[in-house]
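Appendix B: complex inputs.
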Amino acid sequence: MQAHKYIYSFRYDHTESNLSKLESWYMFHKKESNKQLFSNIEIEPSKSAFIKTRLDVIASSDNYEHLIDQIKKKEIMTNGFKVEYLILEGDETRNKERLGKLKDVGYSINTFPDYHNPTITYGICTYEGVWYFGVVIKNNFIWQKHKQKPFSYSNSIKQNIAKALVNIAASTKRNPKLLDACCGVGTIMLEACFTGYSIEGCDISWKTCNNARANLAHYDYAAEVHHADIKDLDKQYDAAIIDLPYNIYSPASDMDISNIIKATTEITNRLVIVSTAEIGDAIENAGLTVLDYCDVSKRGKANFTRKVWVCETRN
Ligand SMILES: C[S@@+](CC[C@H](N)C(=O)[O-])C[C@H]1O[C@@H](n2cnc3c(N)ncnc32)[C@H](O)[C@@H]1O
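Resulting structure:
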């Protein structure tokens, strides 16, 4: 039995499945499968829109009674605990039995529980014949406060996608210097700032830049927004995210798109590009190699699909 320190569970809409897998690939070096992932990499769940919980494994056994013995032997002293049963893929334990197991775990801890305001939440789950016990860390969803940002446009990117783009761009690098190359009102920047990443933005529109700055200031985030055509930005970054202009709110010709991509390769060699159109030729002509690709359709709008291209410069 291979022991892992953490068990992650995921939550997302079917339209976001490919993006969640791509994000987990860049965060964990493996793709989540069936909305769960076992790893030794510790990630704060709120960093992603798709991670629901992380179980920090304390004990595991392929024998349930043995797991309960292990919990007793831990002599857990924390008062005010709660126990939750986490249902993983393939677990067909019936509700009544699950309740019984919650009691077994609860009675193995000699302190007082508090189901309404727990100081700590323990979890029990089973996968492929092995039982796990640990501490449950939940996504706090505090980042959803960004939904109330003062300025938003109809072509602003969805928050779940923005968070995934940041994680894909940052990958496992410790303190990456990120750029939101066509930042609009700063939706992607807000998510990067929430996670604690260093990010700068750039937009050709003066008014849009001001709105992005107002959005950042609203949450007390310090991040620079450059009012410039991306071709005039003269700095270097570890990675750039480009949410390419589209529709009547930010019209752009094929040539404009090619120029934006090409200009961004001058200031970074790692690009995460979002398009609504087929841009394979523009990527190729900019001297980029596509490392990964996925698409994200809009719920209820099957004919509107965002394409996500993870690229690096060829030399
Ligand atoms: C699809 S919007 C980005 C939306 C943004 N992600 C958000 O959520 O608000 C594309 C943005 O690219 C900007 N843009 C267009 N051409 C540009 C260029 N050459 N350099 C920098 N920004 C550009 C537009 O002003 C527009 O705000």
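The two ends are 42 Å apart (CA to CA).
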